[in-house]
Amino acid sequence: MSHVSQETAQEISEEREARAIVYNFLSSLFAKEVTSDLVAQLTSAQGQSFLKSLALDPSLSASVNEINTKLVKLNSKESLLELAADFCGLFLVDGRTSVSPYAGQYLSVEQGGEPSEKLSNAAINESGSKSKNNKAQLFGELHQQMTEFLTDNKLQIHSDFPEPGDHIAVILAYIAHLCVTSGSEQQLNFINSYLMTWLSDFTQQVNKHDHGLFYCFVADLTLEWLKVDTEFLLSD
User: Fold this and answer.
1) Residue 57 in contact with residue 228, Cβ under 8 Å?
2) Which residue has the higher pLDDT, 135 or 203?
3) CA gap 180, 207 in Å, rounded
């Protein structure tokens, strides 16, 4: 068996880290309201370099550019409060215009546990329904499975993030962890089983209810990134 050169190994490591950064970026946007600190980070020279590199992919450029345009306009307390209200209305309250961020509310566990339709650094850290109103699935089977995954990998949900383990921010953060710790096949299997089975439905709901549009672009970017990344993993 041929040996991987040190240079190639370094390239693989950097590639994995770069992918993890994207997943943690997306996770942070779904984990909590956008803060002035996050805006400052993303509009800094380093942040702009990251977003520009992400926009190099034609399928991602439109969403990235729209997000960037929105970020530049978040230059006042009032604009941040307006966006925070959008986040709250979409993901934190239960109403006619809310969107569930929990995998368990899109996946059916009635057919042998197989999905029939529809797991950041901001959400996890290291340690030593078809109906969005179907509350029966909260803290249900998908939450238990994600909790087990996190425990097995010596990870845990931050104490200041009081959400079930199947929250989209937790799932994206866990994939970031897999990017640097697991092989392509394991990453692909997890993504296909725990995210791609419901992400399209979630994105459609966000596009339907987010009149401020920022989270429409975030959801669109997430879906398109997952399509790009799964193709990459298939070719790896």
Assistant:
1) yes
2) 203
3) 31
